[in-house]
Amino acid sequence: MSFQDTLGQDAAKQMLQTALRSDSVNHAYIFSGPAGCGQMKTAMTFAQALFCTEQVDDACGQCLECRKVLHGNHPDLHLLAPDGSSIKIDQIRELQRVFSYRSESKNPKVYIIDHADTMTVQAANSLLKFLEEPPVPAVAILITENGQALLPTIQSRAQTVPFFPLKPALMLQQLVDEGFAPVLARCAVQLSSGLDGCRELMEQNWFAEIRNVMLQLGKEALGRGSSALVTAGQKVFKAGLSDHLDYLFSLFHLWFKDMLHVQYGKHESIVFIDQLEFLSTHASSRSTAQWVSYMDLAAECRKKLRYNVNGQLCLEQFLIGLEG
């Protein structure tokens, strides 16, 4: 495990490595950004680098300290995750109890709190006291999708390290290298901000299936009447895909956007690259404004789903809206 193994996040890595090199490591950090952008991996690498006996600003992965982290049995590293839906005060108290014992080495003790924004108010207040007065030298790493959701008093006592959504091209290359199907990966990287989310999506059998259904409906929408389309749309429910309508509308959004990419000659941006021949043939069948209105319609239907509008009704209205 090394900082070089974390994709992207150059600003975060530079901030942490500079602190290691200059021996100015803060007592608390907030790793804030979308899930799956490498926060946990970076946190583990940072902890490993703090303990590493061979390198100053990274983890060698070979020394005894590094190997303990890799094997999950380093006595000075503690991970905390929600117990159920939240991190509770008893968990913070247990952390404080463990940290009341001094480290056997010169290392600071490190604790990583995943989903730190799920702390109860009591847990957060208890952590605040711990941040201010740890009984032993300690480094805290709080991982959250939204740093602003933490208590302002915790934010003011920690250094925020921002994490950003990974660039789709970067994720695509990594996923293809890992052996995932390129046509699925091209869609997944547009629908998730991190590699973990992409992998999870592509490991679901329904993802490839719903992509195929979208392509079928997307093509039929250009040549059939609304009643035939609605009948075709019922396949989604017969196939047991009704729980994933939000992804169906997201894929439609990408499909219509690809039509615009063809119109403007931006072939390098096309998501459904395996459908290039069809896209090239049909992109001029609608005006730019019409494709944009279809994209807006798909976005509006996703919004309706979030407000619990009936899914079948949403899909039928959407398919009727594509007529003409």
TrEMBL record:
Write down the chemical reaction(s) this protein catalyses: DNA(n) + a 2'-deoxyribonucleoside 5'-triphosphate = DNA(n+1) + diphosphate
Keywords associated with the record: DNA replication, DNA-directed DNA polymerase, Nucleotidyltransferase, Transferase
The identity of this protein, by name, is DNA polymerase III subunit delta'
List its EC numbers: 2.7.7.7
One Pfam family recorded for the sequence: DNA_pol3_delta2
Q: Which domain of life is it from?
A: Bacteria
- Tell me a Gene Ontology molecular-function term this record carries: DNA-directed DNA polymerase activity
- By its UniProt entry, which Gene3D superfamilies does this protein fall under? P-loop containing nucleotide triphosphate hydrolases
Q: Which NCBIfam families match?
A: holB
Domain DNA polymerase III delta subunit C-terminal: from-to ranges: 247-323
Q: Which organism is it from?
A: Paenibacillus chibensis
